[in-house]
């Protein structure tokens, strides 16, 4: 460890919901000497509001998903306690509002038929994959369903696979917390929930965090760790010593080379990190001088059917959340997201306007403003959320969240049941801080054991000091408590964490 650097018990890397939840829990248990290092200039991470033409829009997480079930979603509880304004979303209407490239709406019967066919075929495909995964050769595997070809089939396939059935069924969020979803529509933003958490343990003044334990614009580039603790080095040349680190960066960041680990992470850890897929999910906001889209009941979501899958397919108007706002949102995913991130906003506006004029006619006015988030090219994110492949195992999750020496991993990607969601991030922060507190307690017990052994050895030391035999003198004078600790490690009396070799 670098002896000239400031020291503390815990450094938390990242101030998203998992990092802030972990910090709050540690503070609640009396761990006050902590530092939170955040690469960007704000807290919130993938929960991020933006001012857009005088209104607050959510560039990252927008919904509280999983409400109204047998258990209460903890994020829904936080939202209620903070009086966050939300608005119920009914996605199911999207499948009946499908437009072709000439602006005709597909008849609802045809849309419903295509939808039911696609659901059946998606379920069949999942069964096939599961059978293949479990090597079921005795049961004849049914034929693969035909892949979607027509624009309407492609549009439905997109909403099914990139939205409704993006996860393997059953989806814990819906089975545990309920199937309802609420859009956050609050001027203070979804991130207000993080501020409320932070204000319970950090000093705030006039709605701002003014506590030196939160350090913004601190990009962590190196974690040098050993049994004695961790030295955390940041891009601006600072170093911090800590007994432990809670690392809450996204799996996309872990897959990149932003943070260098010394020594390198063990193979089981890097394999688990690389096995996790990521989703890029982009909500593009467009503000118009007036609205030209239908706004009655059941019209909030609509689809554009195009021969290119995912090409400006999924649309939402913001009239339910913010009446009179004249804002539309179109969602792109993965390759389309990356393609749009790489081009100018002007080009994206041109494409989006082409699609809107296909659907609603040439007289549609050009948007006054456009907002295009870039999650993939943000080196502090490198994804929107994790997406585990169907063949991911329980052990993969165990590995991705297991500590390596004094480094504890947290974040939505470490939560087996709720990865990908805000509540997954929140619960992972709580879980990781509990595991760390346990480890700290164990460490305290072990160091008091060492103290006790040192005390027991003192009479022996006194006795040996009175002896004049030089060999005995050398042997004893070399003995101090750190040697005892090392001896205990070597004798296997203390747990040596995997990866600290
Ligand atoms: C577009 C989009 C839409 C989404 N929609 C929803 C939704 O509707 N509902 C839902 O439940 N979830 C949604 N999610 C997912 C949800 O936002 C995330 O699961 C959750 O916010 C992740 O929290 P986290 O604390 O794990 O990670 P993060 O929020 O990513 O926090 C990690 C923090 O670490 C910081 N960091 C990274 N690298 C470094 C470094 N080297 N040094 C210091 N700091 C670093 C980052 O800046 C960040 O602040 C969405 C996400 C996106 C992007």
Automatic annotation (TrEMBL):
Its keywords, alphabetically, are: FAD, Flavoprotein, Oxidoreductase
One GO BP:
polyamine catabolic process
Organism of origin is Stephania cephalantha
Source organism superkingdom: Eukaryota
Q: Tell me any Pfam family this protein matches.
A: Amino_oxidase
Under which pathway is this protein filed? Amine and polyamine degradation; spermine degradation
Similarity comment: Belongs to the flavin monoamine oxidase family.
Q: Which SUPFAM superfamilies match?
A: FAD-linked reductases, C-terminal domain (SSF54373), FAD/NAD(P)-binding domain (SSF51905)
State the needed cofactors, names only: FAD
Recorded GO molecular functions are: flavin adenine dinucleotide binding; polyamine oxidase activity
Q: Where is the chain membrane-spanning? A: none
UniProt xrefs under PANTHER family: FLAVIN MONOAMINE OXIDASE, POLYAMINE OXIDASE 1
Record flagged with keyword Transmembrane:
no
| InterPro entries on file | Amino_oxidase, FAD/NAD-bd_sf, Flavin_amine_oxidase, Flavin_monoamine_oxidase
Q: Where does FAD bind?
A: 18, 38-39, 220
Q: What is this protein called?
A: Amine oxidase domain-containing protein
Keyword match Ligase = no
- What residue stretches are annotated with the Amine oxidase domain? 17-437
